[in-house]
Amino acid sequence: MAAKICILQIFTLISFLLPVTYSIEFKFPAIFNFGDSNSDTGNLIAAGIESLDPPNGQTYFQKPSGRYSDGRLVIDFLMDAMKLPFLNAYLDSIGLPSFQKGCNFAAAGSTIHQATPTSVCPFSFDIQVNQFLHFKARVVELLAKGKRLDKYIPAVDYFSKGLYTFDIGQNDLAGAFYSKTIDQVLASIPKILEEFETGLRRLYDEGARNFWIHNTGPLGCLAQNVAKFGTDLSMLDELGCVSGHNQAAKLFNLQLHALCKKLQGDYTDSNITYVDIYTIKYSLIANYSRYGFEQPIMACCGVGGAPLNYNSGISCGQTKVINGTSVTAKACSDSTEYVNWDGIHYTEAANQYVSTQILTGKYSDPPFADKMPFLLDLKF
Ligand SMILES: *[C@@H]1O[C@H](CO)[C@@H](O)[C@H](O)[C@H]1NC(C)=O
Ligand SMILES: *[C@@H]1O[C@H](CO)[C@@H](O)[C@H](O)[C@H]1NC(C)=O
Ligand SMILES: *[C@@H]1O[C@H](CO)[C@@H](O)[C@H](O)[C@H]1NC(C)=O
């Protein structure tokens, strides 16, 4: 009896000291990713819609790698943490890339809302889900024919045991500000999330059970938006970010969180994890020097110099003649000092910071504890 009470007291003490978490082992056999440039590992480039020039990719891949960054993206660091290889892009099919451990359908510029003829990127979320359905049907068909493709395609049960990751919505909001008032942007959010829900439900119907959904970041802090919409100081918050854009991101995230809760209620046989990327990125921009950065908003690769080093007419690596002078958007001397790479996307250093924060589990709902094996054994 006395011993039992003592153990109970120790457990109470432990629960008091540690937040309530569920442990995650990252034993997913495969990852299927959907999203925009935050996690595109080569789709838009393989589709031939845009091209990326050096210095993109210089820090890690030593050449442009289909990623909008100087190096790895958050998804790359997450794959590493899960002991899985980098995800190949669905459309980047030449040279026998392996899709055994998953496939990436994310495409830069994509939106949740259905693409229109004027969209930057035709691969909106509904199309990415269609591509996944085609991918899965092909895999099932090929597996039925024999085993010689095992190295290149997932096993059938990977579709139910795999993790489905999402990072999309930023372009729906950022794009809307070019033609809508803030009130109209805010009012459009429920409709955007309805389309997102439709896609998630289609994936569930195809057997997806583990969902990991990133919310959207503080887009008002991107140099691209500060340059265009932050011309008047009254539009900026204390960090120098466009308040309206961040307000839209926060409302989107609030409603996205509610959607995740609703799906968790509907799909009790599934894990639906909401990840608060906004808070991670906003804290990084607010307290950048504490995390080893020197520039929270100014782009590393761009033209024009401080305060933004950004010109919407010249993307990273491009050369253009402006007013009779040839100008090239070059990289800064040390990208690890910058949070932002090209005015729109984060540097590898910032992506690495964001992924380590994700992996603490503190920003997830439900929260999880990574690499805390003793918690695995606590059974009450
Ligand atoms: C949910 O996640 C936990 C921990 O990773 C795992 O043990 C469980 O099998 C998952 N549930 C489903 C339905 O895959
Ligand atoms: C920045 O750090 C300070 C001091 O720890 C903290 O109070 C503040 O909440 C942080 N800002 C953000 C946006 O996280
Ligand atoms: C080009 O020259 C015009 C006229 O001098 C000036 O207003 C404009 O800002 C210049 N453009 C750039 C990108 O420097």
TrEMBL record:
Descriptive protein name: Kinesin-like protein KIN-1
Organism, as annotated: Citrus sinensis (Sweet orange)
Source species taxonomy: Eukaryota, Viridiplantae, Streptophyta, Embryophyta, Tracheophyta
Domain of life assignment: Eukaryota
